[in-house]
Amino acid sequence: MNTLKNDALDPVWARLRHEVEEMARNESMLAGFLHDMVLKHRSLEAAISYFLANKLASPYLTTTSLRDVIFEALQDSADIRDAIRKDLEAVVERDPAARSMALPFLYFKGFQALQSYRAAHWLWNQDRKPLALYLQSRISEAFDVDIHPAARIGKGILIDHGTGVVIGETAVVGDNVSMLHEVTLGGTGKESGDRHPKVGHGVLIGAGAKILGNIRIGDGSKIAAGSIVLDEVPAHTTVAGIPAKTVGRPKSFEPALLMDQEVEHDYCI
Q1: Could you give the CA distance from residue 149 to residue 153 in angstroms, rounded to a whole number?
Q2: What are the E-state strand segments in the chain?
Q3: Which residue from 18, 89, 237, 266 puts its CA 20 to 30 A from 222's CA?
Q4: Quick one: 118 exposed, middle or buried, by C-beta within 10 A (0-12, 13-18, 19+)?
Q5: pTM, to two decimals
Q6: pLDDT (tens digit, 0 to 9) for every residue of the chain, 269 residues total?
């Protein structure tokens, strides 16, 4: 059953369409592109399926077939539909460069890669693993973001810039997490099975941070840029350094929402 919302019932889609219509009026050279990618579609799901298919298509997986697969995933999963909207709102609320919803939808590859992963994750859970892995490869090539389709990622996620982000097969990411470019949620290279980090809700992960192994990163914690985290991080704790050590406590309950990169130094390392 098709449960997709129409324009009148979907404020995110209505806002996106309005912003893109204004873009098209103000820049006639982009009018055709904006009509093709957004304005000709009847729902956010239809638009994003078409948009991502154009980004990810290859000689072996056509735009039309890929669009149909992504749209099928979105039709089937209310969780994905909700996540798309929460992710889009998260970018607008937390990234000062996102002055509208249209900008991350059209141009921010962190957001685009994340939504592509969501379709690949649906395929993985449908036991269509070869296609999910093929799509992972195309996402990595198109966006320079490598997320294994088996990873579990929550809603309200900001992947800022996106370049060089790697999220491993058994990684888990909670809701309302923000991470910047070159973040790795990886294994240590010595383990098999469940070997990747478990990141709690509201966590802020700074640029270039590497979190390695099957370790828990507690809710509301902050990982400073460039840190290498090899041990558990308690909830509402700031860690920094190589290897990362506790240095303080974030000033807010969910630092991911404020994107405050300052490193607290309440404790001695």
Answers
A1: 10
A2: 146-147, 152-153, 158-159, 166-167, 172-173, 178-179, 184-186, 198-199, 204-205, 210-212, 216-217, 222-223, 228-229, 238-240, 245-248
A3: 89
A4: buried
A5: 0.93
A6: 344 555 568 999 999 999 999 999 999 999 999 999 999 999 999 999 999 999 999 999 999 999 999 999 999 999 999 999 999 999 999 999 998 999 999 999 999 999 999 999 999 999 999 999 999 999 999 999 999 999 999 999 999 999 999 999 999 999 999 999 999 999 988 778 999 999 999 999 999 999 999 999 999 999 999 999 999 999 999 999 999 999 999 999 999 999 988 888 776 54
**What is the token pair recorded at 201?**
């809700």
Distance, CA of 24 to CA of 40 (rounded, Å):
13
Question: Are residues 50 and 70 in contact, defined by beta-carbon separation less than 8 angstroms?
Answer: no
Question: Residue for token digits 């000062």?
Answer: 96
The amino acid at residue 34 is: L
| Three-class DSSP category at 40 | coil
Question: E-assigned strands of 53-183?
Answer: 146-147, 152-153, 158-159, 166-167, 172-173, 178-179
